[in-house]
Every structure is written in C-alpha cells, then in structure tokens.
Write a structure and sequence with these properties.
Blueprint (H helix, E strand, L loop, with lengths): L1 H80 L5 H82 L4 H13 L5 E5 L2 E2 L8 H9 L12 E3 L12
Parallel strand pairs: 1-3
Antiparallel strand pairs: 1-2
The protein binds zinc ion.
Length: 243
Amino acid sequence: MEYELRLLVELQDIDSAFLKLEQLKGTLPEEIKQLKKQLDNLTQKLEEDEQSNINAEIERHKAELEIKALEEQLAKYKQQIYSVKTNREYDAITAEVETTEIEISDLETQVLELLDVEQKLKPVVEQEKAELAALESTLKLKKLELDELLGKTQKEQEELSLKRSELIKKIDKPLLSTYERIRKGKNGYAVVPIANGCCSSCYRNLPPQTIIEIKKMNQLIFCQTCGCLLVYKNNEESTEIKK
Ligand SMILES: [Zn+2]
C-alpha cells in the first residue's frame, strides 16, 4: 500500500498545481475587467468636463464681445446727450443709457460666473488626465502579465496533464475513484498531510496512535471528521515514488 499511497500523494501534488494555475489566471482577467471599466468611466467623465470647460469658454467670449459692443453703444448714447434739442429726446437717450448699463452689468456677472466655472474645472480636468494616464499604464502592465502567464501556464498545464495521465495508469481504479470522490467534495484536496498532529484540512486533533500509523505510510487512513486521506509528508524528505 505504501507505493499506492505515494502515487496518490504525487497525484494530489499535480492536482494542487493545477488548482494554483487556475487561481493565478482567475484573478487577472477580473482585475483587467475592472480596470477597463474604471478607464471607460473616467474617459467619459473627462470628455464631459472638457466639453463643459469649452462651453464655458465659448459663452464667456460671447458675453465679452457683447459687452464690448454695448460699451461702444453706450459711449455713443452719452455723446448724443450733448446734442439733444428737446426734453423728450433727452429722456429717451437717458432711458437707453440706463438699459444698456443694466445689460452690461448683467453680462459682467455672467462673465464672472463663467470664469469661476472654468477655474474650478481646470484642476479637475488635469487630475482626471493624470488618473487616466496612471490607469492606462496599470492596465497595460496587467495585460502583459496575463499574456505572459497564459503562455507560461499553458506549457505547465500541458506538462501536468501529461504527467497526470501517466500517473493514473499506475493507480488501481477503485482507489482512483475514491480519490476523485473525496477531491470533488473537498474543493480539490483529497490527500492532505498531517501538520502539528492535526488533519491539515479540518484541523482536527488526531490521536497519537493514529499519527504513528499515518507516519508508517503503509495503509489508507481517512480523517474521521472531514473524510480526507491523511498522509505524512516530511518536508525534508522527497515525496518522489520509490520504485
Ligand atoms: Zn480532517
């Protein structure tokens, strides 16, 4: 049974390596997806803010031109006051002057408000541009990392698959199905080493006699709590199969 037990240990090592490769790949695509989403949102926000800034600038220039035209008009009215001949004419021009002055004042308020909008948007746009650049470079790095990983894991996975198919040929069918059955119910871990006198899957304390039996590595001993196959793995000792 020792030989079979060692085969199962090796099989579990292969399957654990498979799991680790899957886990590695599992996080990066999600990270990339999130980064892309952030990037899209920020790009949209930046476009909107830049557009608002441009709109404010256009509106302000328009108001400034209107002010200039009205000021010229106002100067003309004021000039005309000196050449009026009747009271009616005088009143009419004075009324025009007042109206024009109110219009100019309103436009000046509008210019100040628009300047305020522009001044507030400027640092926001700068900040967003910097954030966008940072996000883009992070995304680029993550994509490279994933490509590299996919290339690397593919080779490792192929090697593992090959090793696995060779290995399972040597294991008795009933034992192999027991292994697969436990593995399915235990998130991929059927063969677990004892650690500090406990099952390293469920951490149940094991009786000293059981530990002695497990260390012999010559019989199948299952954890009474979680059902995993318990083995002894000395870190300094190679787990390679003795043939
Ligand atoms: Zn257990």
